[in-house]
Design goal:
With 238 residues, the protein is of the alpha+beta class. The strands form two sheets. Strands 1, 2, 3, 4, 7 and 9 form a six-stranded mixed β-sheet that branches. Strands 5-8-6 form a three-stranded antiparallel β-sheet, covered by helices on one side. Strand 3 and strand 4 form a beta hairpin. The radius of gyration is 18 Å and the shape is globular.
Length: 238
C-alpha cells in the first residue's frame, strides 16, 4: 500500500534512509538526518510525501518532498523537489521506488499548484519518469551552471516557458552539511556502522563533475570513462 508520510512511521523511515544510503555516495551517509530536518522545516510537503507499506504495515520505502522555486527576471514559479527517496535494500529492484515517484507526481499534477518537480540525481534513473535536463527549460542552478544531474519535470504545461530562470531548493539541504551527524546518531541510538569508500562513491564523484553539455553516458560508459580520466575527491576518507 502507498500512504502519506506519518509521524508514527518516522522512526522506521529513518532506519530505511540510513540503511539504503550507507556508504553509497560517501563514507556513511546523512540522508536520515536530512529526513529529520525536512520534517521540521516549513518547506516540508506532507501531502506529497509517501510511504510504501507491506500487509503488516512495515515501511518498505519512503519519498519526501520540499518546496522549491524557479526565479525569472520578472516572476517566480513555485516548484517541488523530492529527495531523499529510498527503499529498504532487501526490497529494492521490485518497482517500489518507481511507484512512490509516479504516485506522488500524479498527486502534484492533480493539485495543479506547482509548476513542476526539480531534482538532482542520475539522469538515466529519472528520465523514465518524464524528467528532462534543466537546459530544456533554460533554468540553471543559482550560480548559472547546468550540472548533469539537474533535472526538471513540468507538471503544468507552458508554465516554464520563461528564459534564464534560476532554481532554488530548500535550505535544508545546505543546513544538513553544518549539522553534527554523530550527535544526531547518538541521540537516536543508531548502532555503529563501519564507514568506507566504495565504487559507487567514485561513480558519484565523477558524475557530479559533468555538465549537461557533456554527452549522456550509460553506467558502463561512466565506469569506462573513470578508468581513463582522473577523479576529483575520489579518495575521500571516512
Amino acid at each position: 500500500d502507498i500512504e502519506n508520510d506519518a509521524a508514527n512511521l518516522y522512526e522506521q523511515t529513518l532506519d530505511i534512509f540510513r540503511e539504503a544510503f550507507w556508504n553509497l555516495y560517501q563514507p556513511g551517509c546523512d540522508e536520515h538526518l536530512t529526513a529529520k530536518l525536512i520534517r521540521e522545516s516549513d518547506d516540508y510537503l506532507p501531502q506529497y510525501s509517501l510511504v510504501a507499506l507491506n500487509h503488516e504495515k512495515k515501511v518498505l520505502g519512503c519519498i519526501l518532498y520540499t518546496k522549491s522555486r524557479i526565479e525569472y527576471e520578472d516572476h517566480m514559479v513555485p516548484m517541488v523537489t523530492f529527495g531523499p527517496v529510498a527503499v529498504t535494500p532487501e526490497y529494492q529492484g521490485q518497482g517500489i521506488g518507481s511507484r512512490l515517484i509516479s504516485e506522488s507526481i500524479e498527486r502534484i499534477k492533480k493539485d495543479g499548484i506547482y509548476g513542476g518537480v526539480v531534482i538532482l540525481g542520475y539522469p538515466h534513473v529519472y528520465a523514465k519518469h518524464g524528467f528532462f535536463p534543466s537546459s530544456k527549460f533554460q533554468v540553471t542552478m543559482p550560480d548559472g551552471s547546468y550540472p548533469k544531474g539537474l533535472q526538471v519535470l513540468e507538471t503544468k504545461e507552458t508554465v516554464l516557458s520563461g528564459k534564464n530562470g534560476k532554481i532554488y531548493m530548500s535550505d535544508v539541504f545546505e543546513k544538513v552539511q553544518n549539522m553534527d551527524l554523530q550527535a544526531f546518531e547518538d541521540e537516536l541510538n543508531f548502532p555503529p556502522r563501519e564507514k568506507f569508500t566504495t565504487p559507487s562513491q567514485k561513480i558519484f564523484s565523477y558524475t557530479i563533475q559533468l555538465s549537461q553539455s557533456d554527452p549522456d553516458l550509460t553506467l558502463e560508459q561512466i565506469k569506462d570513462s573513470m578508468n581513463r580520466k582522473p577523479l576529483i575527491n575520489s579518495s575521500k576518507e571516512p
